[in-house]
Amino acid sequence: MSKSKEFVGIIAPDEIRDKYVGGIVSDLFAPGNSNPIMYVMNE
Q1: Which of 14, 29, 33, 35 has the most CB atoms in a 10 Å sphere around its CB?
Q2: pTM above 0.70?
């Protein structure tokens, strides 16, 4: 069994993608964090 992860879903509408894709979130992660999958909640 593979240990890789993937996103299974649908691509968001352009209005949502324009708001979030390409945003800078580096300040939300601890230095040295090497987890390849992180969820960021923008509230």
Answers
A1: 29
A2: no
